[in-house]
Amino acid sequence: MVTGGGGTACSEDFLFDAPQTLLIGNKVPTSDAIEAPTYFARIEDNPTVFTIAAEPFDKLREAEEALRERSFMSIDPTALTSIELSEGDLQIRLNHHSLGYFYGA
Hints:
Elements: E1 2-4, E2 7-9, E3 22-27, E4 38-43, E5 50-53, H1 55-67, E6 82-87, E7 90-96, E8 102-104
Antiparallel strand pairs: 1-2, 3-4, 4-5, 6-7, 7-8
């Protein structure tokens, strides 16, 4: 993007309305504990690699993990006698043993 003269011009190859994907790579290795952590990054379909501050992305990852539902159903384990999983013609059945473990039937 080129700015100046009160207006904004852009290259014909670059569309601001088109969605873009930011690919975030590994953290940049650093030997200085004072230096703010950064990640390698690039825009999808663009080979230019740059670095970005790690903090906002670390916070987003922490929020995702903190808000994730850890339990998707509530089951009384004493009432559970077997578990059956199936997909198409494939089936797996696990029976509950009186000693507390499940075994394949």
